[in-house]
Each structure stands twice: as structure tokens, then as C-alpha cells.
Amino acid sequence: METITSTAVRGRVTSQDRVRQVTVLIGAVVAIVGATVGSGAFGGQPIAEAAGGALSATATPIAPDSPAFNIWSVIYTGLAVFAIVQALPRNGADPRLRAISWWVLASMLLNALWIGAVQLGTVLGSVVVIVVLLAVLVTMYVKLLRLPHTGTATSVITDVTVGLYTGWVSVATLANTAAFLADAEVGELGLGATGWSVVLVSAAALLAVAYGTYGRRRPTLVIPIGLAMGWGLMWIGLGRTNGPLFDDTVATVAFVAAGVALLAPIVASLAARRR
């Protein structure tokens, strides 16, 4: 892994850097507080009960069981730490932070907007927002892969946070799309609920492989993606082992997909190091 710490590479801190640092810090506070309040953490309607329960843990066969959503606490903590770190005076001219800080802020605002769409009961709106959010996260993923590390702590915090965020939203996008189709009563589209669930869960596993393979030289980024995707897929499997949507087939495929998601970036990273 290449690491660059030269102050010459960082360049001179400009007034635009300071504006960006302050704006991202304040924006992060607003976005995180707004998302926390909107999700029902301090009272009010929880996401699982909003939009007629379309996004509850038993809404579709690929809805992750409720404990899966605890990952948001880790992601929000990472985003808060990132916002503080990027605002430190010494990091004003960090080229990696220059490249992605605005994108990180956009992702946080989009997440708050997603919560607002669900609370307003528009499942289609939530799908549109989460697809845009995933596009933003994938953009950051590509940018981080192309930029060398500029310092161990800052770079690892950035990579791990974006990785976890990207991995979880990748799984959530598929689950959100399935929730919309179920809410729109489009029918079983030929394959049936089990068949489509297997297709979508398998697609998630293939996506994890793609992330790991493409980013194999940046394990600090792709391994967290695999961890988050594996976490989400595992809870899809656990959710199908009991309750009203019991489905042995989906559970088995989800557990296999979780294993693939966890191992793919590790195997790809180890293979890259041996070359």
C-alpha cells in the first residue's frame, strides 16, 4: 500500500479549504442529528413503521432482520469522526480529503433525505434517493482507490467509514427496491418471491466480489465493504429462518452470499499482495 505524507504533496491551505472544512463539519452535525431524529431514535415513528411498514423486517423475503440496522450506529460514528478529522487545521490541504469531503457531506444529506421520503410514505421516492446515494458512495469508492494514502490515521478512518457505508447501502438498495415492488403490488414477475429473492441476494454477492476485485490493492476500503455486505446478507438469512416470511431457500442462499461477501475482498487483497 502506497503512503504519501509529504507536505509538498499536500500543498498550501487555501481559504476554500477552510470553508470546505467548516461547511462539512457543520453539515455533518445537521445531517446526523436530522437522520437520528427522523429515524425515530428519540421518539416518533420508527422507519420500520413508516410508509405502511413497507421497509419493516418482514416486508419482503430480502428484508434484513431488525438487528442488522445497528450498523448505522457504527457508520454514523465513523462519519462523525471523519467530519472532525477533516476539519483539523493540519488536514486542510490533504488531497484525499479535498477530493471526497463534499461527496461525504452529500451522502449524509441524501441519507437524511431518504429518511424524510420514507416518513412521508413515498417508497418510490426512497428508491430514487437511495440509488443516488449509492452512486455517490461508488464515486467516492473509485476516487479513494485512485488516490494514494496521505497519512495512516486519516486515510484509514476515511477508507473504513466509506467502505462500511458503501457496503451497507449496496445491500439496502436491493432491499429497498424489493420493498417498492412489493408495495406497488407488481406481482411475482414470473419467478415468484423466492426466485427473485435468490436473484437479488446472489446479485449482492457478485457485487461484493466486484468491489473486492476492483479495489484489491486497497484492503482498508474493500474489506469494510465486504464486512458490511456480509452483515446485511447474514441478517437477511437469519430473518428467513423464523417469523412470517420463513424461507429455507432464501436463508441458505443469503448465508452463502454473506460468506462470499466477507471472503471475496480478503482473498482478492491477499492475492494482490503476492503479485
From TrEMBL:
| Keyword vocabulary terms for this entry | Membrane, Transmembrane, Transmembrane helix
Segments forming a coiled coil: none
Which residue windows are transmembrane per the record?
22-48, 68-88, 100-117, 123-142, 162-182, 194-214, 221-238, 250-272
Signal peptide from the UniProt entry:
none
Please state what the protein is called: Tryptophan-rich sensory protein
